[in-house]
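Hi everyone,

Forwarding the result from last night's run.
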Amino acid sequence: MGWFWGKNSQDDPAKALDDDLKQFLKEQQPRPYVPADPPVEQPKPQEKAELNPKPPAAVADPSLSPEDKPLPEASLFQDGRYKHIWKSYVPQNDIAAATSTPVERVLSARKERNQSIHKAALENCAFEEEMQQICFKGGNLSSRVRGRMTMCHEETKAFNRCYQLQAKFLQALGYMTSATSSAEDEEKIQMHADKLYHRMMDYEAEAEDAKRNDQPIPPLSSLFNPNRPAPTIEQMALPKAMEDKMKKPLHDYPPHERELAARAALQEARLTDLYAEDLFKYSVSMNEDRKARQTWLTRIFGEPIGKFLIPDPPKDPNIKPYSLKELEREIWEDENFSTTTPKENNGSGLVTKTGKRG
């Protein structure tokens, strides 16, 4: 009973083991835990910029040869590697600016703006889209069967109407019409469009509730300035040339949507005028070339054949019998809707003292 009276050093079971086996067992023992060093505090972004200042971007000198020009910012190896490959590199924006005509630039700008409005309207209608998807795919079996039988008519109708009105609000507020506005400014316009849409939905709910309870319909206020009454249809009378471009006449819209439709039509007409300024110089030079070719053909084949092959240029289509500034002044006679330049206001009604939307 040696274990009761204590351990005897002579009875050590590892004493009879070989020295190599003892060394092996010693190496297999787990190492003692050593706590790690505390993490080193990383410098802040401003301190990083001070410690490692970024060299200013080098501007390529046109007089330099391709081998002597600095590497472009698109190169991942600013130390000079693969410089022989990057010597002929030209940014895509520079290629588009040099090769595209004003007509192509206008068409591209319109396409990009329509895509941006589509994306922003879908983001503002995320709740309505989710309710439509839940109707089709969510719920129990009876709910899914009902959704398939009715094709989720109510949810789809609410989503489509939300998308159409949100897109029209974005158009009326001048979304993506200025090249100098920042992403923050465009986001503010998107949020303001969503706010005006829900204000319209609240008014529709109040009007429906008043009709059900045989009560007078609440008075209609301006969508863009609730502190003033909505303009009448006589005040919003648009020129026939502008109203013909709308999907339907102004009097066919519900009373609470007429101001939105008129404002969107004015904003689209203003944007068309901005594009027309970009096309004016191009059309002038094109007409001069047309006249030169017509003169050459007339001198060789005679005037009838020359004008038949190359007819006279059309009259200037930019001359309009109305003024956008005068129309806006007559419809929205308010300091919040004062007529300013498109770069200052863009028709959004979100103008600060500095001329930026806020």
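The radius of gyration is 36 Å.

Cheers,
N.
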